[in-house]
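Escalation from tier 1.

The customer reports that the assembly of two entities below gives different structure tokens on two consecutive runs. Tier 1 could not reproduce it. I'm attaching the input and our single run for tier 2 to review.
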Amino acid sequence: MSDLDVDALLGNPDIRIVVCCGSGGVGKTTTAAALGVRAAEVHGRRTVVLTIDPARRLAQSLGLVELDNTPRAVPEAAGELHAMMLDMKRTFDDVVLAHTDAKRAEEIFANPFYQAMSSTFAGTQEYMAMEKLGHLRARDEWDLIIVDTPPSRSALDFLDAPARLSRFLDGRMLRLLIAPARAGGRSVFSLVTASFSLFAKLMERVLGGQLISDLSGFVGALDNMFGGFRDRAEETYRILQAPETAFLVVAAPEPDAVREADYFAGRLAEERMPLAGLVVNRVHEVYAPDIPAGEALAAADAVEADDPVAAGALRVHARLVAQVDREQAVTLRFREAHPSVPVATVAAQPADVHDIDGLRKIGTALSADPVNLY
Amino acid sequence: MTRWPARLHVVTGKGGTGKTTVAAALALALASQGRRTLLMEVEGRQGIAQLFDRDPLPYQERPIAVGWPGTRAEGAGEVYALAVDAEEALLEYLDMFYKLGRAGRALRKFGAIDFATTVAPGVRDVLLTGKMKEAVTRTVEGRRAYDAVVIDAPPTGRIGRFLNVTAETARLAKMGPIKTQSEGVQAVLRSPVTSVHVVTLLEEMPVQETADAIMELRALDLRVGSIIINAAQPDLLPTAKITQAEVRRGLVAAGLPADKGTVAGLVAESRAYLTRRQLEEGLRAELAALGRPMMALPALAGGVDLAGLHRLAGILLGGPDE
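Tier 1 run:
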């Protein structure tokens, strides 16, 4: 069983993109930032970290004070490290501007549907993260791009967003909505074929005429961009499949997080996307391995009256041993399901990381021999 | 006063804080008060089925557990579970309001369902919140179908948007059926019927997000219920400082190995515990400053099972420390 060699990955000049995925609350952003610091400082690679929604203090440690969608140099890191926070709406606006003239863009920006969709539509964040990644890669200014994926309800949303968009673009619904706009604003459903008529009546009844004409105006205005949207989504998808990209699945040693990691590993295999390894964060470690949990608890009860502090220390120890056993069992289950996926572990930090030095330590831990693994 | 007086309990929290577990425990607690309770998940993750060790739930309300003391004869209410699927909810909605019946299923062929549930702005959330309102206001033969509804809701990062989406659609749809429906949902969500509880861990990010979410919910005029601290650590060490001598003495007294490595190891473990503990106290104070009732649930060693959920439910019935 091989274990994940993070330094080999970060130091490999053929690897241009590292995508960190996993469910929410597992330290994904911290992992992405720590990998970025290590790639820049230890491997001398010109690196950019694309974060989606970092904790405030972590963002500050990277010198990110505002969401401005532009990579900024991280002042405290040696080497060339840049970081940026994704601004979903601005990315969407940029896509629109890139595909249409200024006047058309103004119309689109003013449409209430565009305003709602660009900032609230579930899935926009995933799509825009892909879009931004494609954009950064196309500029070819960085040796390595490290992407932190959005904190989705499921790690899979990141992969599903482009397919969903494509399915929509190919759908008849879209053509139906576009038809009137193409015909120069005649009555919304006047041009649709007979086979649509029942459906059209239904839509008018359900949505109301005003809503349909706003919607149709929105879709019509975007019409000439959809091809471009799809091409870019597909292009980014191809980049994700290429050998220059490495996926790291990030998890905490807990059943839910590992189950998500398991789904994700299976899904990446289906998509023929290169999974480089699993990073297990917040792994606990026992420092007094000679005392089993049961004996520690019995001894705690026995010495409680005379040595309350020692009794407490023994209870802390017993609890830790049980926790480590559970963590190992859950990690082992993943390893058995995916024997070819290498694993790296990071010991739990007593306090949260919010400076470059903390990120350096995490990077070192990531590259060290795994702890606590059978 | 009845504990948990609201009828629609929306349970949110940062991802990974155990929202689903807390929602399920709360549903059991309400059932133990004799209330017929619906536990509803809206994120399509089948978390409830996993928690109760069942096959994935269909889009259908099914009894999944009974409140304490475990039988309806003794006055406990039942917990029903429902995993809401946005597509099915849309078809149901169309059927209910437009009497489409099976004809509505033809919409799928046109890609209308894909469009409505994934691409059109927030339609998915409109449907899900609409279903919440429907469940809490439904009557059967003149009586309420459920005394209480508990929602395993989207995480803190999206909860404000989720609960407020119908305000947004009411704005987009200037008139017509969608506007009427949206306003009806808003009325329920902003009434005393509804209470939004936030689950957190004593960790920095979840606490920060709890504070952000409560501010956002208040700004949207939504009622914040309790803050529920999940997986709270027990207080194991009656000291703030620990020395090797104390530990060695205890080990010797208990007849355990007391070599240098073991003593140092135990002290290191205890110091890490104390550091963590101190950090947690600071975070607890930050939460207290938010001015909501707070309660703490213990971590369930060895995972969550039905017995564990009942234990958490019992603690929830003890009520928030005011």
